[in-house]
Amino acid sequence: MISDTPHEPIEKDARTRRDVWVSGTWHRLPRNFSWIVPGYLAGISQPRTRDDICALAALGIRLVVTVMDEPLPAAFFQDTGVRNLVLPVRDSWPPTTDMIDHFFATLAALPLTDRAVVHCGGGVGRAGTTLACYLLKYGAMRPTPLCTACTNAAHDMSRAIRAPDCTEPCGNAVAPFMTPTAAITWLRTARPKSLETVAQEQFLKEYADVLWRRYACPGSDFQLVTGDGALRRNGQCTMPALVMLVGLPGSGKSWVAERLAARFTHVSQDLLGDRGACEFEVKTHPRVVLDRCNSTRADRAAWLALGKRPAVVVHFDVDLDVCAARIRGRINHPTLKSGRRALKQVVELPTLDEGFAAVYTVPSYAAAQELVDVLTGVSPPTANVASNGT
User: Whole-structure pTM over 0.70, yes or no?
Assistant: First the structure.
């Protein structure tokens, strides 16, 4: 019996699962569609039309996860009952830890009858890395629902991390299900060519370490939200070309940089490997967030000499002990060894007379969130407060 109901699609080819009966006609899905967890989580290449989204909706899919640097047109989703989660990742790059945490938090909030699909351009590189992270944590199975404490934490922080008061059974209280090698092997069997670059494979190993650290030390991620104090600003600049981050390893720089990725190109020496590559990226892109310690006036002057203007600087005024605790949680983070040494350094406070149009000071998680809103245009700048000299 043919049905048009969303949760009872008719598939013309059960092997490829590419032709779906929608509103009285067959529609071919984008290529590379396959279930990772049957009836719950799938992978696919980029949807190109609104009809593609309607066909996914006919399969019961209510969440489309876009792992690309550009979102799909909003018109694709209008009146379809499908929402779009965007994880802004450039081609050939891996997502970030926070992006995967946000992905898991969004999955955890789905009603039990809803389904999700993950895509990038071809459905194998960036999407494959995201799906491999799911296999790391849960295997090819539906996750155990989160406990109340972890559900509340996921809602408050948009990150699926284990709360200090987590109670079992809980999806965050289980050990990682697969090793990185097993996850890649499983995924490439189901979806050939998944994970296309060394960087994507390396990220999978690093995320596996994060999962094991969290399993061994429940609540350790909540050190990210310590501290208090409002965002402070000296100077004025509403549309900077360069956002220079200043602070010790573990102070929260990368957390902010990742959330600015929709408006700025994230330039991280940890990811690019050397200063020359960073300089090239700074010169090439119109709007850049520079994610380095940038602890001395001389170091900052060298970057300003590249001529990227107007420039603002963000100082992360975070307690040394908090930075140290965060670094201890980065088992294979590329800055681990250098980070320990850098904790002994003294940060020279940035000032306007270095050539910045504005100086922001971030003393807390709430201040970091406010900064992201200001620099992305979500909220107006804070009141001008002379806090770091002129």
Answer: no
Structure tokens belonging to residue 197: 């670059």
Here the tokens at position 76 are: 């694709």
Structure tokens at 383: 């009141």
Does the domain spanning 14-148+170-216 belong to CATH 3.30.450.40? no
pLDDT tens, residue by residue, 243-273: 999 988 777 788 788 778 878 998 988 777 7
Helix, strand, or coil (residue 28) = strand
Domain boundaries, the chain: 14-148+170-216, 232-376
CA distance 373 to 107: 24
- In terms of C-beta density within 10 A (0-12 exposed, 13-18 middle, 19 or more buried), how is residue 236 classed? exposed
Residue 11 per-residue DSSP state: B
How distant, in Å, are the alpha carbons of 27, 58, 81, 83, 163 from that of 76? Answer: 15, 14, 11, 10, 36
Mention every residue, 6+ apart, whose C-beta is less than 8 A from residue 379.
370, 373
Q: Which fold has domain 232-376?
A: Rossmann fold (3.40.50)
Q: Work out the burial of residue 17: count CB atoms within 10 Å of its CB; fewer than 13 is exposed, 13-18 middle, 19 or more buried.
A: middle
